[in-house]
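Field reference: sequence -> structure
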Amino acid sequence: MIPAETKDAPLPSGPYSQAVISGDIVFVSGQIPIDPTDGTVPEGTEDQIRIALNNTISVLSAAGVGKGHVLKVTVYLTDMKDFALMNSIYAKTFYAPYPARTCVEVSSLPKGVRIMVDAVGETGGH
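Structure field:
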């Protein structure tokens, strides 16, 4: 297992890696909408969704995974009413054929954010 890290996404705030690589498979830890340039969390739901997805893509890319080689994405929302908005932004973030995906509603997320995203991909997809 090899850790993967990028400054283009928030650095871990606890005892975990942004991602780990095992063989050709990359496992990305949950990414929340912290702006990696200044450490802030935007107020708006749309901005939170975009930043969480961008952080996930940044970690995948740093680990050698291109958008076309993302295998599975899990999206955690604190309100399923945000599903349609998330879905529209998600559809512009990943390539068709889209990765397998699970989306669940959770009662809360770190730092009070509305979304967290984790992913699994395979290297060699740039």
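Note: The chain has a mean pLDDT of 95.
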